[in-house]
Amino acid sequence: MSSLTAHLHNIRELLPTNSELHCTLLNEGFSNQVYLLSWDDAGQLVLRISDIDTEVFYINRKEEMRILTCASNSKLSPNLVWSDELGNFACEFLPQPTLSWEVCHQESALQRLAGMLRSIHQLPKGHHEYLVLSVIRHYLDQVSAKLNGNVNLQQEYNYLLSCFKLLKQPKKLLPYVLCHNDLNPKNVLMDDEELQVIDWEYAGVGDPLYDLSVIAKSHNLNERQIEAFVHFYSPHLNAEEVMEVIAMYSRCYSLREMVWMLLKHIVTPEDTDNLQEYYRFKSSSNLNPFH
């Protein structure tokens, strides 16, 4: 059986017996296989088939499934209806759209996002640590080990390594908590009524201000919005200190994205989208702060 056919067999009790099933591959992401399962003229389930090297990309499937279950039970993520020990799962399909990469938030949306973050950060921590500088270092080591003499990729590795050397560990202002670590607009389902989060693949124990920084950077917040967002999250934080931390973590986030894309291309060279996206990201003054 094909990968999809095998997994449809595994969840056969969830599927209709008297309606035609339609499977649509969703392709907004760069890892794993994600299918929308529809019947009766409506989306019903989302099936995620694990399709990425977890060791290379610093993913803990056991912890991901535990966290996803907690998030689902807390209504922070779509209802989880099936999962296995390999990180494959099915959840209910929600009609709320993901946000646009060009999203422009109103203050009310920032309040809702801050409340959502507080709820995520109150989930049970678990034992999988996610410290972004260590993760970037891990990715760089993986890239270096897999270059195989490719001169062009060696140049890109050298560039990314030089960027990494410009980073430093931000000051720890808050206790470590369970963090999502990848709250870009495409992982946020949001409309005027509902707000939920998907793709918990990189969740782990870390600095809550990194989550705030990912939102600040990837959701296009300006300085005034970042200050308001931080206040909504925790009004007792020192604004000047927090802004310094967020500035550094925003640079960390950008570098993590670039290293991830280059590593994904090296691991799966037949998929040229990752390399194209890497060069697009690298050349953008809005996305790449190391120009």
From TrEMBL:
Domain Aminoglycoside phosphotransferase: 23-238
SUPFAM superfamilies noted in UniProt: Protein kinase-like (PK-like)
InterPro entries, alphabetized: Aminoglycoside_PTrfase, Kinase-like_dom_sf
Pfam family for this entry, one: APH
Keywords (A to Z) from UniProt: Kinase, Transferase
Molecular function GO labels: kinase activity
Name listed for the protein in its UniProt record: Choline kinase family protein
